[in-house]
Structure formats: C-alpha cells, structure tokens
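Before relying on records like the one below, remember that each one covers exactly one chain. Contacts with other chains, cofactors or solvent are not represented anywhere in the record.
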Amino acid sequence: MQAAELGVQMAAHITAIMKRDYTVETPEYNILNLEFEKTFRRILLIAKKRYAGLKYEYAKGKLTAKPGDCVPTLSGLESKRRDVTLMIKERVVHVLSLLLDHHYSVDENLRRTREYVWRTMVRPLLANKMDLRQLAITKALRALPEQYAANNPDRALPVHVQLAGKLIKRAGGEDQPNAPRAGDRLPFVIVRGEPGQSVSERAEDPVYAFEHSVPIDADYYLEKHVRATLLRLFVPVMQGRSRQTQLGGAHKVAHKGGVQFGQTDAARKRHNEYEAAEFLFGHKTEYRDRFGDGDDIEPVTERNSLAVREKSIAEGAVGVVPVREPRRGDLLFEVRYNASAASAQAAGSVTKRGTAVKRARGTLFAFSPRGARCRSCRRFERGAADGFVCDECALRSPAMRDRTLADARRYALDIEDLRSERRALAETCHECMGCADAPQHITCENSDCPVFWRRKRNQRSQAALGERMRTARDVALLTGGFERLSLRGSDA
C-alpha cells in the first residue's frame, strides 16, 4: 500500500508540473492527467517484455489483486504460445504461483516448487504415466507432403508433415474422409523409436498411440520441454539468491573449472544453469529424486530403483538383473533363474547405467526355460505367465478360493462403476453434439476435448477389468466356489 500511495503522489506531482510548464503559451491543448494504475507485489523479470508477477490494481483508494491472490500475470512466457504442450501451459502457471507466493519465504517457495515439479511432471514422465493429451503438440499443416517437398526440394520434411504422410497412408489416400487436409492443425506426440532415428520421424497421432499402447519418449519431453522451460524460470531466481549471498559476505565459487562469479558472461551463465539444474532435478544432467522414497513412489530413478530391488530381494522375488554398487563394486544381489535373465544372456549383453557390458554367450542362464512360478506354492511351470495359479493350489487352497472370489467381486463392482461413468460421459457428449433428446452414436473425434480422453481411458479400463474378471471366473470354476460369488461384500 505504501508503493501505491507513492505512485499516486508521483502521478499528481508530474501532472501539476506538466500543466504549469506547458499550458502557459498554448492553453487550448489538453494536457494528459497521469494516474497510478497498478503495482506488483512480487515480480520475476526474465528478459525484456518477459515477466511474471502478482499484479495489484489501484482503485478508490485501495489495492485489489488481479486476477486473484497469488495468481500471476504472465507476459511473453510459454503459457501464451500455441506450439507448446498442455502440460507446460498448465504447469508453468502453477510453478510461477508457487515461486511468487507472498505467504512464504523464497527458500520455502523453492522447496514447494521443486516438489510440485517432481510430483506432476518428472515422475509421471519417467514412469510413462502422463496423459497423452497433456503431451500433444499442435501445428498447422499448410501443405501436404508431396506439395511441401515440391516447394522445398532442399529441405527435410518437418515433423507434422511427416506425420501427415503416415496418416494419409493409414487412411488409404489423400481423398479419404479421415485423411488430413491442408489447413488442418495436427496434434502429435513424440514416441520412442529405433536408435539413431530423428525426432521428426517419431511423431505419432495421440489417439493412435493411446489405443496401441505406444510408449512416449520421456527423455525428449524432459529435456526439450520440462528442463528447458523450468531452467529459464529458475536461473534468474538462483542468480538472485547467489547475489544476495555475495552481498551478505559469503564469496561463492563454482567448483567446475574454478570459475568465479563475474569472470565471464558465458561462465556465469553456465554456472547458474548448472546450479539451477542441480537444485531442481538433483543433478546437473540427470534426474535424481533426492526427496523421494523407494517404498512410496515409482521406481523411476537410480536411487529409488536400487531401494525397490533390494526390497524385492529380501522378499524372495525373482526376475531381477544383477547390479553392483557403483562406487565399491559390491554385488547387491545375485542372478536368479528366470526368463528375463535368460533373454538378456542370450542377447549377449546387458545394459548397465548406459554402458553395454558384454557377457559370455551359451551360459547356463541362456538355457533356462521360459515360465513363471505359482502365486501360492511358488512352483515353476513352463509357459506360464506371471501371477498365475496352478491347478492344485486352485483346488486345494481355501484361501486362494476366497481371494479369487474377493477379486471377482471387486472387479465386478469396478466394472459397474466404469459403466456408470461411461453413461455420464455419453450424456455430456450427446448434449455437445446436439442430440440429447434423441441420443445417437458418438462420432466425435476431437482429441482436444478432455471428455474424449476420459471415454478412451474408461473403455481401456473396462477391457482390462473384463480380462481380469474372466481369469477370476476360470479359477472360481476350478475351485467350485463360483456359486458363492456375491456382489454385496459377503459370500452368499
């Protein structure tokens, strides 16, 4: 409020001086009256015309937060661009809200922001659990592949033009109704590909990738979208904290190359990026979850993977690859006889921390049979899948029968919940299509709509639960307990 009062006084003083100096000879000209309009409580200046701040507008003697308390006003940042993912557009606003929150200190805001980044972006991407709608990039298709190649003979086809070629081939030709047209905006995601394959060749339609379970390229999104965007925001913040530390009396030196602050602009910029990356991602170039625990989050980082593997060994799990401690070289656990180890040994090499470690062909592991162990008696059976139950355990074990009945009951209730959700989503689509009174078949394929993706996920969940329900039914038929199945929570 003090800044607002000073702004009002400055505006009145400048207006009075202008009227005094410029209205003596030409009083017929109107002199502009300066008025104090707004101020920022906290602001992050990145570059010219690129900033984010908590704006307060002044009216009738008081300041009002616009658009709201701790809701930042953005200018020139990623949330305003059309060629970025929805994940970045939405998450950047929340990241800036946490960074500029005036209810907490700067250090506390940095800690909260780092946890939010890992919880909503880094971990879901590393675990391949990010919604494809959040990762879709949209670009306008100005010309079809043949026309673009004819107009630009010396240039490679852009990523969305190559995707248009794939879609035209799948549709059966350019004249087909579901083929892309010039002027359309094509959404696409970047998926994993062969080694050495360029990014422009790995674009895929989001709906096709979802329906065919094509894994996304998490490294691409982490490096090109998450890391690049967040470092542009965090480098100025970390630079400001370093200057405050220097002014406070602590002389800070970058250990990499012995570069001190102020020596060169390039060295200072490189040090600030390293410092911000190490604080935000746990490492300058990698992703290490320093505040996570292997027991309660996905095993997606090096540290968490080791914790989960050690826990699996303690419980007698199978199917783990031998791993040594990186510093001392101690063997963390030994190899077990399993199909995954056999396939790795038969291939002749295994990958360890990005380095190909050669192993001898024709070892005992290469001839181990493919199969799995019974979930109850742990007896190995050839050709079986993980989690199966042998016939003897299914017939003799009352506990297995009761567990199967409970699983079938839970699956049936979940399927009914999914069907109710499906009906609600269908009503929403019918209202949007204009056929609420006489519902018709849903033909909408707008991948930008969140309801569309909810219908797709609902359909996939129903299919997965239906498969589990059929497996539980087969086991229940073997145990003779199918007639005891009830959906009311207790056996009939």
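The chain has a mean pLDDT of 75.
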